[in-house]
Design brief:
Length: 268
């Protein structure tokens, strides 16, 4: 989703509603990044506010979140960590150990999803990226797969793992798949018959909240069907399918949005 109410949102399913990761600070803000304090906003299926999860420590530069094994996993790139919430207690987890020096954001962990017995994490690395696979529940590292450049998102289709190679303007797979999307791909939703990919304009940080973006819609053989243009809405940060199973990040966003909330998008 694009920047919304001053929040940079990533979202996932939760019991009885949906959870949004809110940075509570625009990318273009003059507030220092180290002063950021994110939160998890919980809404019911009618998108009415239900709860706010606030960790006892700062959640800074929140990226993708997901529910896995009855726990919320929230990537916090600024501190090179993933924050875990079980409904009662918050815990910091450092996938490659606590940072020894500043800047703390060495790996820029930004995406996470549960894949069977494993938790899969994207290490953006500010360059050549890795897909890290950890065995649950003890979080032992069992695989490190180089894939993409400045990568975001990770998902599985069959035996192949995919990611958005954002700096290359493409989608790449672990078995050689490659698709050029152009722009800065980030945010993927997958239904039974389509892929939806968010594409943002490359821009300076102080302009990122006001750029135009698009959503590219492909069939399941990756043939481009059409594009939806989002003018002056800022960068696309995440996409999720609503009202149906999202195969890109397992779970279902069960929402009911009134027709009056719908907006007309320019299509091509």
């Amino acid at each position: 989703m694009a920047s919304w109410n001053g929040c940079r949102g990533r979202f996932c399913t939760s019991t009885g509603g949906s959870s949004f990761a809110a940075r509570n600070r625009l990318v273009s803000s003059e507030i220092p990044a180290d002063a950021e304090r994110g939160s998890i906003l919980v809404y019911d299926r009618h998108l009415r506010p239900k709860d706010v999860y606030q960790a006892p420590y700062p959640l800074r530069d929140l990226y993708q979140i997901c529910w896995c094994q009855d726990r919320l996993w929230a990537t916090c790139s600024f501190d090179n960590m993933i924050s875990i919430y079980d409904g009662c207690r918050w815990e910091r987890w450092y996938p490659v150990g606590p940072p020894a020096s500043e800047p703390l954001d060495a790996n820029h962990f930004n995406s996470v999803f549960g894949d069977g017995e494993d938790l899969v994490v994207v290490a953006h690395n500010l360059g050549t990226s890795d897909i890290l696979r950890f065995r649950l529940p003890d979080l032992t590292l069992v695989e490190q797969l180089p894939l993409g450049v400045q990568a975001h998102n990770v998902w599985r289709v069959g035996e192949e793992i995919y990611t958005c190679s954002s700096a290359e303007g493409s989608i790449r797979g672990s078995k050689g798949f490659e698709l050029s999307t152009g722009g800065f791909p980030r945010g993927v939703a997958i239904t039974e018959d389509r892929y939806y990919v968010g594409i943002s304009e490359l821009s300076e940080r102080n302009q990122r909240d006001f750029t135009s973006s698009e959503i590219q819609i492909y069939d399941r053989s990756w043939k481009l069907e059409r594009k939806l243009f989002l003018r002056d809405e800022g960068m696309v940060l995440e996409l999720r399918a609503a009202g149906t199973e999202d195969l890109g990040l397992p779970g279902r966003i069960d929402v009911s949005v009134p027709d009056s909330a719908a907006e007309t998008l320019e299509c091509a």
